[in-house]
Structures are given as structure tokens and as C-alpha cells.
Amino acid sequence: MPSPSDRRPLESWQDPKAAPYVRIDRVTKQFGDVYAVDDVSLNIFQGEFFSLLGSSGCGKSTLLRLLAGLEYPTSGRIYIDGVDVTDVPPYSRPVNMMFQSYALFPHMTVEQNIEFGLKQDRLPRRERAERVGEMLDLLRITELRKRRPDQLSGGQRQRVALARSLAKHPKLLLLDEPLGALDKRLRENTQFELVNLQERLGITFVTVTHDQEEAMTMSSRIAVMDAGQIMQVDTPTAIYEFPNSRFVAEFIGSVNLFEGKIVAIQGDDVLIEAQFGGLMRMRSLQPHPIGTPAVVAIRPEKLRLCQTPSDDGVNRLQGVVEDIAYLGDVSIYRIRTGGGTLVEMTLTNIQPRTEQALTWEQEVWVEWSPTSGVVLTD
Amino acid sequence: MKRRSWPLLSVLAFGYAFLYVPILLLILYSFNESRLVTVWSGFSFKWYGELLHNRQLLDAAWLSVRIAAVNATIALVLGTLAANALVRHGRFRGRTGLELLLTAPLVMPDVIIGLSMLLLFVALQQTIGWPDGRGFSTITIAHITFSLAYVAVVVRSRLARMDASLEEAAMDLGARPLTVYRRITLPLIAPALLSGWLLAFTLSLDDLVIASFVSGPGSTTLPMVIYSSVRMGVSPQINALATLVVAVVALAVVIAGFSLRRR
Q1: Which UniProt keywords are present, listed alphabetically (chain B) (predicted)?
Q2: Does residue A136 form part of some domain?
Q3: Pick from A315, A293, A295, A278: which is nearest to A375 by CA?
Q4: Which residue in A107, B1, B97, B173 is deepest, having the highest Cβ count within 10 Å?
């Protein structure tokens, strides 16, 4: 599945001259004693598809509501397009939001729902009708325009909610779990549609999601959140390949963590004495003092499986195949190593399954190269 | 339900009979020709005709309807405001107090409410000279104090079930708080407002106890007239009038029920 974000030419967040479209400056939101958002600073640029990713209760929804003006921060400032909007009420912000529950007005038709925001702007009738027509077209829901929300399916409601939030041509659209209420098949189609829509309209999207796959597919950048704080902000690729902490490594996808202690630096590589009783050599450009405890994080698909060990003696583990889960395109192997830890790895099933040599209880070597993982020292 | 269990059905029939046979008898006897309430002598609209010429009864009925309507309207406004405060404004100072004081009239005996109201009005009259005599306004005020509690309960449960993100969405789309209330909140709680109003109306219409305390000479409500005339011997006119009241109340209840069931 090609990630739509790979097509993206602009990378405004890397351009030092670019001014952020949304600037969140040391924002904290407290509910009683609870810090829902804890000293968060974040820059989001024009045209981005930005995702706030985290498990429930991590503060991502609160952060989105702060941008919408539905909550006011306890401290810190929020700027949109250079203007301080921290104290601006939601009805005066150049921002629209698509709610998780869609929040369609049950006593209005689809048409009236879409028109509602335009009426608040006192647009002339002709222009309103035009804009509503344009939105109905854009989301291909023209035939639903006379229906009421309770006569729509989940997918249709999602499109109406999207149409309503886009009708005022906002520069910034906030989406709270935009695909959360859809079934799996519909969700995958809608993901691509959302991204296409966003690129076509050139609107900055900020979405909230707990679904990492969704965030990976759609986003230009992802902010991984935990306990009200931002753990890492980066492109989907960077978040997956170069997590900056144990939390992010474990939160996104599966990962094997090998603990150890840094014993030597050799050029660009560090040597780590592993707890499983061997040496690991990993590429790491950050300076590490010798003696620091470190964790080597390696994704399951970046491990190699060998029948006989290669000769350089580092980055390898011996074990037996304990579990094989055949998923069709790939198989997941669980290898029980000498120290008792389980190593998880995935192999693409290049050959038909019947011809595969590996079986249960077989003795194997698990190996990896210095560039296939990261060294974490937090 | 294909299989009917006869014991259960007969229990049900007995229950309904217990509740409604007295009222049915009353309606039946309102069409009785005889002057004696307990002897059936033939079908007639005679008592309805006489009722139309009974000024005392008609005046009392008109006073009761006016009080009930004014009471219901004011109680609706106040009760809705209270419900809004309780549901939409989180934990403000004095919230528990408001909640408690608001529900107290629901369980307070009518006699106590009536007596305390009477004491209040007398004291007020002695200190500020108002109310100058008791009647329409004192009865209405007394009725508002307890019916607003009922309105608040009905509206509150409706507001609490309403998805708060609807109001947020309207605000996000550019509507100011008052517009949000008018265009989103009010239409969605309208059924509860209607049934709250009707509830307050009927509560006031059939109140005897409180009205007896706070009414004055020349302002006799319908229940008071009926009650006092029964003591002197029931005229079949009362049956006719009671039938009309039952019809009005039943209609109100049916409308309220329907409007609450719709979404």
C-alpha cells in the first residue's frame, strides 16, 4: 500500500523560513488536578495533514478542542495564521471541526445542515445555494440533500459532516477521529479520499486518531502523545524507522527491544553489551557516553533468520522456533532465545508455504545489521 | 404474543378497573336524566345545558383556566432556566443547593406549601402592602412555586440526553450562544417544553389544597367550587363539568405523551 504522504513534495516543516500556520506555544490545560495537555508546543504548517496520535485519555482530543476554541487553555498561547486566538470564542475562529459523533443537527435536512454555517455568515441566499451545491457535489451526496440525519447510513453521515465543516471554506479543518465510526472496508477507502480532498482543496488538516495505521497512511506528520505530552513529532516514516523513545517504538507497530550497556564507540557505530550475552553493533550518530544503559529497538521485518551463524559474531541470537503465524502475505515467527526472551520477526512468504524450510522447534539464528534499528537511551 | 395467560390478563383488567371505573361512572352519570346521582333514568344532555347557565361554576372554571395558563407559562420559563443551569453549566457555586431546593416542592405536602404561602402573603401585606387581598395573583404565584419544579425535572432529563456536541458544532460553525439556543437547543427540547407546560397546566387546574389557602373572597377556583358543592349534595352538573375537565386533561396528557415520544 503506497503511502499518499510519499507523493508530497512540500516539506514546509523543514524550511526554516516558513512561518507556521498554527503555533501552539507552551499550552497547558488542566481539569481540576488532571493535566489533560501538559506544556505542549507545536508548529503546524499550511497544507499539512497533521495527526495527533495516542491512546484514549492522552490529551489529543483536548488539544484539538483547544484549537477549535471549545476549551480555553489554563496557560500558554495559540496562534492561527499569525493571530493570537487564545481568547477568541469558537464562533469567531477561522477554523471548522468535524466531530467524532458527527453532531449533525437531527431536526434539519442534509442541505440545511450544510447551509447552517453559511447562514451564520449572512451570505446571500444565491451564494449559499451555490456553496451547498458545490459541497454536495464534492462529496457526491447530492441525492441525499433532502434527507434527515436519521435516514442516513454511517458512511453517509460522515460525508455530510465533512461537507458541513468544509462549507465555510475554512483554512484549517479539525477532524476528531474522522473514520472512527466507519467499518473497516469503508475506512480504507475513505482514508485515501480524505487525503485526496485535502490535497485538492489545499486546506490544513489536523486530525485526532488512536489508530496508528490510519495516521501512518494519511499524515504528512504525526505527533505521538502520551499523558498530555508530545513524545515525538515527525513524518510517518521517521516515526516508524527512527523512534526517539521506547514509548514511541512500542506504540507504533511491533518492535523487539534488546537491553544492554554501551561499552565502546567505533566511528559511527556504538558497541553495546547485550543482556542476552553478546555484543551488538549499531549505527548511531548521537554522542553516547560509555557506560550508558541503552535499548536496541528492531522492527520484526528487519531481522534475518539463518540456519548457521555468520562469522562476525555481533548482532545475533540463537533460539528455537516456538510459534509460526501464517497470515498469507507474511508469516510471523516467534523465536524463544537462550535467555528466555521471545523475539518476534516477520518474513515475506516468497515461496508457497509448503516449500518453506522452517518448522516448529527448529534451531535458528536471528541476525540483524547495524543500520536496521535504533539505539534508545531514555 | 400468541399465548394468553388468563390469570395475568384478569389481574391487568382488575388494575385498569380499579383506576378507571370511578371515572367512567362519573362520565356515565353526567348523561343521566335523573336529578339523583345514583339512579339511572335515561340518557340526556340536560345537565350540560344547565351547566352553561351556571355563572358560579363557569366563572370558577374560567378563573382556573386563566391561573393554569399563566402559571404554566411562567413555570416553563423559570423551570427551563433552572434545568439549563443544572445541565449545561457544570459545577457552579450553589449547584447542590439549587438542585435540592428545586426538587423539594416535589415531595413537600401541599398543606405545608399552602400554609407557608398564606403566611408569606399575610406578612407581605402587613409590611409592604402587597398583595392587596388574595386571589388570582396569589394563587398563581403559589402554583408557580411548585409547578416549576416539575417543569425543571422534565426539561432537565431531555437536555441531559441531548448530545452537547450539537451545540458545540453550531458554535463552531459561527453561531453565537443565543443563536445556538434558538436554532439548535430549543427545537430539540421543544417536546419536553410542551409536555412541561401541559404538566404545569394540569397540576394547577386540579389543585385544591394550595388554592384554598391562598385564595380570597370572590376568587374561587373550580376544584374549590366542586369540593364545596359536593358537601351540600352533588348536583349532576358537577358530573357534567367533571367530564369536561377529564376530557381536557386526557387530551393534554395524550398530546404530551405523543410529543415526548417523537424523538
Answers
A1: Cell membrane, Membrane, Transmembrane, Transmembrane helix, Transport
A2: no
A3: A295
A4: B173
Domain end call among A227, A249, A271 = A249
A55: closest CA of chain B, how far (Å): 21
**3-class secondary structure, B193:** helix
Give the nearest partner residue to A90 out of B165, B171, B179, using CB atoms. B171
CA distance B9 to chain A (A): 37
Contacts of B263 in chain A (CB under 8 A): 106
By CA distance, what is B263's nearest residue in A? A106
Query: By residue range, what is the domain housing residue A53?
Result: 4-94+170-249
- The range of the structural domain enclosing residue B191 comes to 48-261
- Tell whether A184 is within 8 A of chain B (Cβ): no
Residue A26 has pLDDT above 80, yes or no: yes
Given this model, what pLDDT does residue A2 score? 45
User: Does the beta carbon of A88 lie under 8 angstroms from any beta carbon of chain B?
Assistant: no
| Contact: A116, B166; criterion CB under 8 Å | no
Distant-in-sequence, close-in-space partners of A85: CB < 8 Å, separation ≥ 6: A69, A78, A79, A93
Query: What tens digit of pLDDT does each residue of B112-170 get?
Result: 999 999 999 999 999 998 888 788 999 999 999 999 999 999 999 999 999 999 999 99
- A-chain residues near B164 (CB < 8 A): none
- Nearest chain B CA: its distance from A90 CA (Å): 5
A161 or A13: which carries more pLDDT confidence? A161
Return the pLDDT at B188.
92
Please give the grid coordinates belonging to residue A59. Answer: 490529551
Position B173 pLDDT exceeds 70: yes
Which residues lie closer than 8 Å to B227 by C-beta, 6 or more apart?
B208
Q: What is the ipTM of this complex?
A: 0.83
The conformation of residue A103, written as its DSSP 8-state character, comes to -
State the nearest Cα–Cα gap between B168 and chain A, in angstroms.
7
Alpha-carbon span A369 to A81, nearest angstrom: 45
Overall number of domains in chain A: 2
All cell numbers assigned to A3: 503511502
Q: In what order do the strands lie in the sheet with A363-367?
A: A304-306, A363-367, A316-326, A330-337, A342-348
Domain count for chain B, please give it.
1
Three cell numbers, residue A342: 521471545
Spatial neighbors of B86 by CB under 8 A, at least 6 apart, are: B95, B98, B99, B102, B152, B156
Q: Under an 8 A CB cutoff, do B172 and A168 touch?
A: no
Give the chain B residue nearest A115 (alpha carbons): B173
Minimum distance, in Å, between the CA of residue A181 and any CA atom of chain B: 16
Task: Indicate if the pLDDT at residue B262 is higher than 70.
Answer: no
C-beta atoms of A101 and B187 within 8 A: no
Hey, of B173, B182, B186, which one would you mutate to test binding to chain A, going by the most A CBs within 10 A of its CB?
B173
Q: Last residue of some domain: A205, A230, A249?
A: A249
